[in-house]
Design a protein that fits this description.
heterotrimer, A alpha/beta, B alpha/beta, C alpha+beta, B: alpha/beta, Aspartate Aminotransferase, domain 1, Aspartate Aminotransferase, domain 2, 3 domains, 7-stranded mixed sheet, 15 strands, C: alpha+beta, OB fold (Dihydrolipoamide Acetyltransferase, E2P), 6-stranded antiparallel sheet, 3-stranded antiparallel sheet
Chain lengths: ~500, ~450, ~130
């Protein structure tokens, strides 16, 4: 792995630049109509480097990263499966890439057909009645979902319903989203088996309940076995069920949230449907709803005109506020992350109905195999009596107590051994945990190699613990001083002179 | 099996290690009543050759008309290197840089991006991106409510010259948290927001923030200095929503008025991101150092490692959803990292000179287009006063049929404004960037004249 | 082992209160709390003149892993926020009961420290609930 790279400004030389990329200089007269008082006086600080310098710099930066293309990346609840190159190539066909969002529908039927069919496929695999594609990330989809729940209750005059129930193991976006929607949050406990405490749930629901936000399988990596009972309890109290689709990979093609009783779901297309994580995004948080929430969907949604004479091709168009007057509104400047949606479409078409079920099956097979091998190697599962879903939790509480080596230390040492660490310290309920999700695109060899690495680290922890507690040793940097980063804020490069 | 590498021998060995007879046994915790029987609604699988053909057909059907639409998404030349590097697997398939030691590439790139955006906007600090320009305005309003300690009203003044979609997104996003958005009319002659009108809307009351878009949705240039000073004199925050390319020529919001804007946001798409039917794009946000803890989204900072070597890490994470939970500054988790990457590479290739030339050429081409069109019959400019690289034209007949005919000839003539601004009459928003040649402009002008002449004769 | 000075009062949310001779009170967070948070990187204290109700979030303490609200144990008016913490947030870690004080306030009439926990009670509370 390469070691370090200067900040690009350190390569700048006055007068350098990729000048063949620039338009020719415009005569001053052409901009003379811009008022002097509104003109920029000093040039902005941007790099002055040639094209090869820029290419080298950013290529070298890329080589400092771990990625799915280079490393096994078992981050729990992130679903780091292979991002097929075909998805990128076909989403970036020049006609799709060059189309203006406000181009007329007459010049977008190909694009709209892809999006409409994506809506239909997502409906089918989730068991929901309608889908909207515009939310731009999972958290954004969550916002749409909770906003729709709130809008539903208000439309029925049920103004007291402002409380969202969230299991204590939930992802942080869940309570944050509830607050953003003007709701209050009520946390309920999870029992030792990893299921929701039904007694606590019965006590928590009432006339103020707007709904409950759940992930199934849960963030603990186990299937909420009494989900039908949970749905009954919440519905009987007048609340709605929201499904956080972060863990949809576990059940894709095997179980459908709509069949479990959920009223609204969001899907993470950048997880389950393999669109790229891109170093932090873009994602797409499509939402699906049961019939009673359909009027509230965020716009725009793709609609299809009924075909006229036989033989005429279907005509696709955008449905807007006029078609959905009770919509929660527009959440995106245009229609969401269109390019991401096209990638998800290509992926789903390649999988087809046959491939969808294989996702859930092989993701679960890989997770259970990895869990079995790690337990055989002496590691402690957090929920040993449960099947893994597509992910599972190993707790290193014993190692922390007996050897002074923590989950964080294991994670850092895994980097030296060529594996990206699993998710650490989430969910907060399990001390010293590693949440491990292999995904279905990894081979048995990779999983075996990961087990071997964990065994090696365990041995090191017992025999020379500093090797682990001081890790990583071979990465471009060692552990970083977070405290200094937050206290001595250095958030932009400044020229020294 | 697409993307699944297991052979039957693998599966057999794995099932044996787990101790189950078949894969279905792994789902025994799931009630049988819930298990899916079939997914008939999903079409059968396709291999790469087949899907490639289908996508090519659909793309061909959409074609590549000549585009003169702006309205928040702008066609600029994107150097080939930008996406060649951005789609490298190490950037494309990397995760959020939570494990800093394994993500120094992404983290350093964010740091460089933050530097460029802070400078471009004339502010002190930037975040690592938001979803898009529209949601960035919503987030800025929420941030103003948190940061403006002198104000309790949560009232935000939003001129009608702010992009109509942005106004809708702000209301949909922040309306549930008690913010009140109040529209401010524009002057019909200049298409700009007049200070007297702002003053009347505000009356003597507590206003938390005012949003100013520059150039505004009509392409007109607002009196940003006067409005900024007016706002600050009465304890109102200034949220600037700006076009990043324009900032190569126009004064950045950090230099508006005496004190500069408080929060700056905008749509980053013009910086190396293709039009791609509206997304993925990215929103940018910059602000003063004193408000950094109120800013949503991720931030990268430079620090040192155990050996004293410089390195980069996400910082100020305690504000974010995964720690603060219900009290987070926002619920944003995934942002638009890949697009921010493209923008950073774009800005590095363009540099200060290239960006300035792009801005100047775009403005020049729009001026050329407007001048040529308005010599013809039945078309005139809607507003007087300075504009930047977009302008509103008034036609002597309904716009929609004209645009439809132009489209059938392979020209997208602009955006009709009757939906959002019916009071303007037959109004058309046109834009030309540096990608339009003289020949392109000539063909548009000729086609428009021809279409209008035929309509007149009919 | 947590340091719990005997002459102070305590709350269940790990704030301490000291009665000052001039009738005002001084408030901070306990040794247990600073330890749980880790190295503080930022502290936000209320401005002098601000009125607070008992239970209202009045200050924020931020480490790399958490940002927590500090709740006012009493109702009253803030007379001062600790200016040292703007540049030295770590004073809360190194000297939580001394230089790391967060704010001083004049309690409202009727708002008293008697209802708060004694040092013994707080110690018992830490043992049972763990905080």
């Amino acid at each position: 792995m390469r070691t370090a790279e200067k900040v690009i400004f350190e390569y700048s030389r006055p007068g350098r630049g990729a000048s063949d990329q620039w338009p020719p200089e415009t005569p001053a007269a052409a901009t003379a109509d811009l008022p002097a008082s509104l003109r920029r006086a000093r040039r902005p600080l941007l790099p002055e480097v040639g094209e090869l310098e820029a290419v080298r710099h950013f290529t070298r930066l890329s080589q400092l990263n771990f990625s799915i293309d280079t490393h096994f990346y078992p981050l729990g609840s992130c679903t780091m499966k292979y991002n097929p190159k075909a998805c990128n190539q076909y989403a970036m066909l020049p006609e799709f890439l060059g189309r203006h969002p406000l181009a007329p529908e007459s010049h977008g039927q190909g694009f709209l057909a892809c999006l409409f069919e994506l809506q239909e496929m997502l409906k089918e695999v989730t068991g929901m009645q309608a889908v909207a594609l515009s939310p731009m990330a999972g958290a954004h989809g969550e916002f749409a979902g909770v906003a729709m729940i709130r809008a539903y209750h208000r439309a029925r005059g049920d103004l007291a319903r402002n409380e969202i129930i969230v299991p204590e193991a939930a992802h942080g976006t869940n309570p944050a989203t509830a607050t953003m929607c003007g709701c209050t949050v009520r946390e309920i406990p999870v029992d030792a088996q990893g299921d929701i405490d039904l007694q606590a749930l019965r006590a928590a629901v009432g006339p103020n309940t707007a709904g409950i936000m759940l992930t199934n399988p849960s963030t603990l990596g186990v299937f909420e076995r009494r989900i039908e009972e949970v749905a009954r309890i919440v519905h009987a109290a007048g609340g709605l069920l929201y499904y956080d689709g972060a863990n949809l990979n576990a059940i894709l093609g095997k179980v459908r949230p709509g069949d479990m009783g959920f009223d609204v779901i969001h899907m993470n297309l950048h997880k389950t449907f393999s669109t790229p994580h891109g170093g932090g995004g873009p994602g797409a948080g499509a939402v699906g709803v049961a019939a009673r929430l359909q009027p509230f969907l965020p716009i725009p949604v793709v609609g299809r005109e009924p075909p006229g004479e036989s033989g005429a091709a279907p005509r696709y168009r955008w449905l807007t506020e006029k078609d959905l007057p009770q919509s929660i509104g527009r959440l995106s400047g245009f229609m969401g992350n269109a390019g991401v949606l096209l990638r998800a479409y290509v992926y789903m078409r390649m999988l087809g109905r046959e491939g969808m079920s294989r996702v859930g099956e092989y993701a679960t097979l890989n997770a259970n195999y990895l869990l079995a091998r790690l337990r055989q190697a002496g590691f402690d599962a957090a929920y040993p009596q449960r099947r893994a879903s597509h992910e599972f939790i190993i707790t290193l509480r014993r190692q922390a107590r007996d050897l002074g080596v923590t989950a964080m230390d294991f994670a850092k040492r895994l980097l030296d051994l060529g594996f990206h660490a699993p998710t650490t310290y989430f969910p907060l309920l399990v001390p010293e945990c590693l949440l491990i999700e292999p995904t279905e695109t990894e081979s048995r060899d990779v999983l075996d190699a990961f087990v071997a690495a964990m065994v090696q680290i365990q041995n090191e922890a017992e025999q020379e613990p500093e090797r682990v507690t001081g890790a990583p040793h071979t990465m471009p940097v060692r552990r970083l001083d977070d405290v200094r980063a937050a206290k001595q804020l250095d958030l932009r490069w400044k020229p020294t002179a | 099996m697409a993307f699944i590498p297991h052979t039957p021998a693998d599966v057999e060995a794995m099932l044996a290690a787990i101790g189950v007879p078949d894969i279905q046994a792994l789902f025994d915790e799931i009630p049988a009543s819930l298990r899916v029987k079939s997914l008939q609604g999903v079409p059968t699988e396709m291999n790469e050759m087949q899907i490639g053909r289908l996508m090519s057909e659909r793309a061909r059907a959409d074609g590549r008309p000549l585009c003169f639409i702006g309205a928040g998404a702008y066609e600029h030349h994107i150097p080939a290197a930008v996406w060649a590097i951005t789609t490298r697997g190490e950037f494309y398939s990397a995760y959020t840089p939570y494990q800093a030691e394994a993500s120094q590439g992404t983290l350093q790139l964010i740091y460089e991006y933050q530097t460029m955006m802070a400078s471009l906007t004339g502010m002190e600090v930037s975040n690592a991106s938001l979803y898009d320009g529209a949601s960035a305005v919503a987030e800025a309003c929420l941030m103003a409510v948190r940061a403006n300690r002198k104000s309790k009203s949560m009232r935000i003044l939003v001129p009608r010259t702010v992009n109509p979609h942005y106004r809708k997104v702000a209301a949909a996003t922040a309306g549930n948290q008690g913010l009140r958005f109040e529209e401010v009319a524009y002057a019909p002659d200049t298409g700009c927001t007049a200070l007297e009108v702002l003053q009347k809307c505000a009356a003597g009351d507590d206003i938390t923030a005012v949003v100013i878009q520059q150039p505004n949705f009509f392409g007109q240039l607002e009196d940003v200095d006067a409005i900024t000073d007016w706002a600050h004199a009465r304890g109102t925050f200034v949220i600037a929503s700006v076009n990043p390319t324009s900032l190569a020529l126009l004064k950045p919001p950090g230099e508006w008025g005496t004190k500069g804007a408080d929060i700056v946001v905008g749509e980053g798409q013009p910086l190396g991101v293709p039009l791609s039917s509206g997304g993925p794009y990215f929103g940018f946000m910059t602000t003063r150092m004193e408000y950094v803890r109120q800013m949503p989204g991720r931030i990268a900072g430079r620090t040192v490692d155990l050996s004293g070597r410089p390195g980069f890490t996400l910082t100020l994470q305690a504000r974010e959803q995964h720690i603060r939970r219900a009290k987070a500054t926002s619920n944003i988790c995934t942002n638009q990292g890949l697009l921010m990457t493209a923008a950073t590479i774009y800005l590095s290739l363009m540099g200060p000179v290239g960006l300035e030339r792009t801005a100047a050429a775009s403005h020049a081409q729009t001026r050329e287009l407007v001048a040529a069109i308005t010599t013809g019959k039945g078309v005139r400019r809607a507003f007087s006063g300075p504009f930047f690289h977009e302008s509103v034209l008034l036609l002597d007949r309904p716009v929609a049929p004209v645009l439809a005919t132009l489209a059938s000839r392979g020209i997208l003539g602009g955006l009709e404004l009757s939906e959002h601004y019916p009071e303007l009459g037959h109004a058309l928003l046109v834009c030309a960037t540096e990608t339009k040649t003289q020949a392109d402009i000539d063909s548009y002008v000729a086609a428009l004249a021809d279409v209008m002449q035929k309509a007149r004769a009919a | 082992m947590s340091n719990v000075p005997a002459d102070l009062r305590y709350t269940r949310s790990h704030e301490w209160i000291r009665n000052l001779p001039d009738g005002t009170v001084e408030i901070g967070i306990t040794d247990h709390a600073q330890h749980a948070l880790g190295d503080l990187v930022f502290v936000e204290v209320p401005e002098a003149g601000r009125s607070l109700k008992a239970g209202e979030a009045s200050a924020v303490v931020e480490s790399v892993k958490a940002a927590s609200d500090v709740y006012s144990p009493l109702s009253g008016e803030v007379t001062a926020g600790n200016p040292r913490l703007a540049t030295e947030p770590e004073a809360v870690n190194t000297d939580p009961y001394g230089n790391g004080w967060l704010m001083r306030m004049r309690p409202a009439a009727g708002s008293a420290t008697e209802g708060l926990m004694s040092a013994d009670d707080y110690l018992k509370f830490l043992e049972t609930e763990g905080g």
